[in-house]
Write a structure and sequence with these properties.
By secondary structure, this protein is an alpha/beta fold. The chain has a single domain, classed as Rossmann fold (3-Layer(aba) Sandwich). The chain has eight helices and seven strands, in the order βαβαβαβαβαβαααβ. It has a seven-stranded parallel beta sheet with strand order 3-2-1-4-5-6-7, sandwiched between helices. Strand 4, helix 4 and strand 5 form a beta-alpha-beta unit. Helix 4 packs parallel to helix 5. The site of NADP nicotinamide-adenine-dinucleotide phosphate (NAP) has 29 residues, from helix 1 and helix 6.
């Protein structure tokens, strides 16, 4: 059947696959025919995601991506792949006056250094096949909007935008595409940690600021990832896809 968005036969590594957006991406990509390599630290939650996948031959590869040795071991053991979705990430609210190198390292290690090192290692060890696609799950924070307390988080995501453009240019001659997705609010463990975000009152005022009048679902982000991983986007590289219900229009 004609379907330029199919992921049939593609092997896709999804980091952050034990929860939230990464879990949603893994599930939806499996429904589109991809074999998924699920990566995160928590084996129990990774197994829950694994059990929700469609199709066969998916793999779990447990790793703490804040450790360089785990990244190196992960890439060494990887089969040849057709794509990566870098979704692992953390959000910490740190007012500017409390920023120090410890909090900076904690946030940057997983949000910025890990996906960049993982990309570098997969390129170096030639694990990415020709016509591969790398998708970074970044954020509108720091790129289009700002939130109090998110200075380091925003910087960690803003750095990804710069990397995406330069890497897209450099890897084009290997026919490897590099793009990012910048989502707005998708309720998940990452946001639920800050319980005040989704009280009824806050939800009302949040929805007022979203032209499409709802918060996001993991599937909303997954459909963008499917496009960027599929052959339908084979002439798209170095781009940022904003998925935010129109939030940044206001
Ligand atoms: N939710 C939103 O509204 C929103 C908006 C914009 C951007 N984003 C971005 O989307 C991504 C996913 O967020 P989410 O909302 O789905 O959050 P989430 O539910 O908390 O998921 C975060 C994922 O990252 C993994 N992770 C964290 N630290 C890790 C480490 N050291 N090594 C390996 N994996 C690690 C977690 O797995 P383990 O704990 O099992 O390791 C988990 O699977 C993040 O990069 C976030 O910045 C989210």
């Amino acid at each position: 059947m004609y379907n330029p968005f199919s992921l049939d036969g593609k092997v896709i590594l999804v980091t952050g696959a034990s929860s939230g957006i990464g879990r949603g991406i893994a599930i939806e990509c499996s429904k589109m025919g991809a074999k998924i390599i699920l990566c995160a630290r928590d084996l129990k939650r990774l197994t829950e995601t694994y059990n929700l996948l469609e199709g066969q031959h998916h793999i779990i590869m447990q790793a703490d991506l804040s450790r360089q040795s785990d990244i190196e071991n992960l890439v060494k053991d990887l089969p040849s792949i057709n794509g990566i979705v870098h979704c692992a990430g953390i959000l910490e609210i740190i007012p500017v006056k409390y920023i120090n190198s410890n909090v900076f390292d904690k946030i940057f290690n997983i949000n910025t250094l890990a996906p960049i090192l993982l990309t570098a290692q997969t390129v170096k060890l030639r694990k990415l096949l020709s016509n591969s696609s790398i998708v970074f799950i970044s954020s509108i924070s720091g790129i289009s909007i700002a939130n109090v307390g998110e200075a380091v988080y925003s910087a960690s995501k803003g750095a990804i935008s710069g990397f995406v453009k330069a890497a897209a240019l450099e890897l084009a001659n290997r026919n490897i595409r590099v793009n990012s997705i910048n989502p707005y609010q998708v309720p998940s463990n990452l946001l639920n940690k800050f319980t005040e975000v989704f009280t009824e009152v806050n939800m009302e005022s949040t929805l007022e600021k979203i032209p499409l009048k709802r918060v996001g679902k993991p599937e909303d982000i997954a459909y963008g990832a499917i496009y960027l991983l599929s052959n339908a986007s084979s002439w798209v590289t170095g781009s940022n896809l904003v998925i935010d219900g129109g939030f940044t229009l206001l």
